[in-house]
Amino acid sequence: AFNCPTIIITPTITHAACYGLNGMASVTVSGGNPPLTYLWNNNSNSNSITAPAGVYSVVVTDANNCAESIQVTITQPPLLIASATAFAVTCEGLCNGVASASASGGTTPYTWLWNTGSNLQSIFNLCPGQYAVTVIDSKGCIDDQTGITIGPGISVKPVIGGDTFICGDET
After folding, report:
1. Using CA atoms, how far apart are residues 160 and 112, in angstroms rounded to an integer?
2. Is 112 buried (19+), middle (13-18) or exposed (0-12) by CB count in 10 A?
3. pLDDT tens digits, 91-132
4. Tens digit of pLDDT for each residue in 149-165?
5. CA distance 171 to 169
6. Whole-number mean pLDDT of the chain?
7. Cα–Cα distance between 93 and 153 in angstroms, integer?
8. Starting at the edge strand that comes first in sequence, how are the strands of the sheet with 7-14 ordered?
9. 78 φ, ψ (degrees, to nearest 5)
10. For residue 87, how many C-alpha atoms fall within 13 Å in the half-sphere facing its CB?
């Protein structure tokens, strides 16, 4: 009876950088009698695959029909989700609104880029209007939050006989 030589399969995995993107798995083989054939469970027949996150197996077979298999897992980070909270200006005519961004998923740390040009997580002294923020994680994954509205605030009413102004229900 023929004794199969030992076939050693060593995997190299590059996980998906962003949710929904492909990763890569490749195998290096030592032992066995060339030529070697590869058969992955996604029907690829090379020593490497580019594929979405998941569990994959490969069977390596040598010229004597001796085979060895191994399983690899390609992972992905959670979906990057940007969100923001807006605080209206306190009184009509002022520019003291605030918008603050947050994010979940992806791979920390995050970078912020507002349509104002600011790269801070929170931006201040905003006039009423529409704002947007782009969140970029450490792997370059991107999510946008648009339609962040800074409201106009409460109308200003002058106090009769003086030069003091009050906002809304202030006394």
Report:
1. 46
2. buried
3. 988 999 999 999 999 999 999 999 999 999 999 999 999 999
4. 999 877 766 556 555 55
5. 6
6. 92
7. 8
8. 7-14, 23-31, 48-51
9. -65, 155
10. 11
Euclidean distance between CA atoms 58 and 72, whole angstroms: 8
Place of tokens 């349509």: 115
CA distances from 145 to 8, 86, 141, 142 (A): 49, 12, 14, 10
Q: What is the pLDDT of residue 155?
A: 72
| Residue owning tokens 């009698």 | 33
Task: Give 76-138 as a 3 state SS string.
Answer: CCCCCEEEEEEECCCECCCCCEEEEEEEECCCCCCEEEECCCCCCCEEEEECCEEEEEEEECC
Distance separating alpha carbons of residues 119 and 84, to the nearest angstrom: 14
Rounded Cα distance between 76 and 99, Å, is 30
CA distance 36 to 5: 13
Per-residue pLDDT at 154 = 77
Quickly list DSSP for 25-57: EEEEEEES-SSPEEEETTS--SSEEEE-SEEEE
